[in-house]
Specification:
The chain is of the alpha/beta class. It folds into two domains: 94 residues, no CATH class; 179 residues, Phosphatidylinositol Transfer Protein Sec14p, CATH 3.40.525. Helices cover 47% and strands 10% of the residues. A five-stranded mixed β-sheet has the order 2-3-4-5-6, sandwiched between helices. A two-stranded antiparallel ribbon has the order 1-7. α2 packs across α3 and α5 crosses α6. The C terminus is likely disordered.
């Protein structure tokens, strides 16, 4: 029997209607993926049922798209461990960065049955001490746990609320075009989490420059899911009612210190998992066929291959 968490009836209905899931076909889809992974000499990937079904759901059960995402997931993490959570994870060091509370995933999804919510507080770290690259890599710890455990996020997707209060020029300078591209490529080509929207709040002067740099790097569909509210909280509440925000924002969806503590415990409980990650990745020397063209994948002048993310 496959070791897959049963979905709630509500989530199962959404998976069938929106993700093209056919429950009695899961075994065949998983077996096909597992066989494909076995045939890739360059790729060492997890092959447990839950891992594979999460990628299938994130790709709306297109086997070809799922293969591309799994390959990209491991390829990018192996090639660029300084940008993405790779297979050498120093949990204690990353945990110290995570506890700054810059990026957190909230316990209650939108409307209690919709997308998972994340809050990103860019101004909560000191850019003279840390880079956003380091902060974002530390957030990869909770991103990985979400990928493994959170059926709500996998089926319904993720909405991010980006709070730019207290952001300085030091923060902006860290968001180079090269780094922004690496973040966007990983999100769109490697993660089986379907972004459903990004809401920008408390946007300061100079934000337009950053926004106009990042927006063209995204697929057209994702560009249509960007919302800039400035300080107009009512516009945010129309789409995300206040109670689904953390207590610090007047809501009821946890408080920042509580969220940090809860996630810290979950991260520490994953110690064995991070150790196992050393066994997975890619070896480009063994890749059969055309090598990955990293220059065109990330080059600002090169062709940026876009997947349909939805």
């Amino acid at each position: 029997m496959p070791s897959i968490r049963p979905l709630s009836p509500e989530l199962q209905k959404i998976a069938i209607e929106k993700l093209n899931e056919v429950p009695n076909q899961l075994d065949d889809d998983i077996a096909a993926l597992r066989e494909w992974i076995k045939q890739q000499p360059h790729l060492k990937a997890r092959t447990d049922d839950q891992f594979l079904v999460n990628f299938l759901r994130g790709c709306k059960f297109s086997l070809e798209r799922t293969k591309v995402k799994i390959d990209r997931f491991y390829t990018l993490r192996t090639k660029f461990p300084e940008y993405y959570l790779g297979h050498n994870v120093d949990v204690d060091k990353l945990l110290d960065l995570f506890k700054l509370g810059t990026i957190l995933i909230l316990p209650r999804p939108l409307n209690d049955n919709g997308p998972r919510l994340a809050i990103i507080r860019m101004g909560s770290y000191d850019p003279s001490k840390y880079t956003f690259q380091e902060i974002n890599r530390a957030a990869g710890l909770i991103q990985q746990i979400t990928l493994d455990e959170d059926d709500v996020a996998i089926v319904n997707g993720l909405i991010s609320i980006l709070d730019l209060s207290n952001v300085t020029s030091g923060h902006y300078l860290q968001m180079t075009p090269s780094y922004a591209k690496k973040m966007t490529v990983f999100q769109e080509e490697a993660l089986p989490l379907r972004p459903q929207g990004i809401h920008f709040i408390n946007t300061p002067n100079g934000f337009e420059t950053l926004f106009n740099m990042i927006k063209p790097m995204m697929s057209k569909k994702q560009q249509g899911r960007l919302y800039v509210h400035g300080s107009k909280w009512e516009a945010l509440y129309e789409q995300i009612p206040k109670k689904y925000l953390p207590a610090e924002y007047g809501g009821e969806n946890g408080s920042i210190p509580e969220l940090i503590r809860d996630w810290e415990q979950r991260i520490l409980a994953y110690r064995n998992y991070w150790e196992e990650e050393k066994n997975y990745g890619t070896d480009e020397r063994l890749r059969v066929g055309k090598p990955v063209d990293f220059e065109s994948l990330f080059g600002l002048q090169g062709s940026f291959r876009q997947l349909n993310v939805d």
